[in-house]
Design a protein that fits this description.
single chain; 201 residues; alpha/beta; 8 helices; 5 strands; binds thymidine-5'-diphosphate
């Protein structure tokens, strides 16, 4: 088993339907085959706060700032109880969403972006953030049979995508066109991760 001196945090971001979950799983399988200790995780989590959030995303009853606070609370528990110990022990963590989801989604829902950043300021900075970029039409087609929650609506996702792209360009995140065939996208992702692993060995 290959364990790094210090673990790394790789984060997938993007609008609903971009393919984050598929690519996170494929990346996990590949890294395991390469002999690394990997853990795959996601936000909202399956913990108490994450489950509470999911229920309210369906019911659309909470104020957007309340959701921002809940997402931040879910992230705090996730970071302290899972991410930090795993990083300390040299694991590679792949997270399906992290802080950028809060900044982009809750800002698109009218919450002040600086305030969102401030309530998340203790969060880890990812070693690699990959934005899987897809147009909203493709994303909606991919989700066609799914029961839609609060955020899975055309105009809203257009706003989220715009914020994601602006922030990714400013922060230097890796942007991958996720409309290409799955394995083509995955190869691009693996190239980025291979570079990161070389740096961290
Ligand atoms: P999603 O990744 O779709 O989770 P799942 O597939 O397990 O239901 O996340 C649920 C929704 O929550 C999604 O529309 C994005 C949104 N979200 C935020 O608005 N802010 C956040 O901080 C996070 C983590 C997610």
């Amino acid at each position: 088993m290959r364990r790094l001196k210090r673990g790394v945090l790789i984060v997938f971001e993007g609008i609903d339907g971009a393919g984050k979950t598929t690519h996170a799983k494929l990346l996990e399988e590949w890294l395991r085959k390469e002999g690394y200790v990997v853990s795959l995780t996601k936000e909202p989590t399956d913990g108490e706060i994450g489950s509470l959030i999911r229920g309210h995303l369906r019911r659309k009853d909470f104020h957007p700032a309340t959701l921002a606070l809940l997402f931040a609370a879910d992230r705090l528990e996730h970071t302290e109880k899972e991410l930090k110990p795993r990083i300390e022990s040299g694991e590679i963590i792949i997270s399906d969403r992290y802080v950028e989801s809060s900044i982009c989604y809750q800002a698109a829902d009218g919450v002040d972006a600086e305030w969102i950043e401030s309530i998340n300021k203790w969060a880890l900075s990812a070693d690699l953030t990959i934005l899987l970029d897809v147009d909203v039409q493709t994303a909606m087609k991919r989700m066609k049979d799914k029961v839609k929650d609060r955020y899975e609506e055309w105009g809203f996702l257009e706003r989220v995508r715009k914020i994601y792209l602006e922030r990714a360009r400013n922060k230097g995140y890796s942007i991958i066109n996720a409309t290409s065939p799955v394995m083509e996208v995955q190869i691009e992702i693996r190239k980025l991760v291979a570079c990161l692993m070389e740096e961290k060995q």
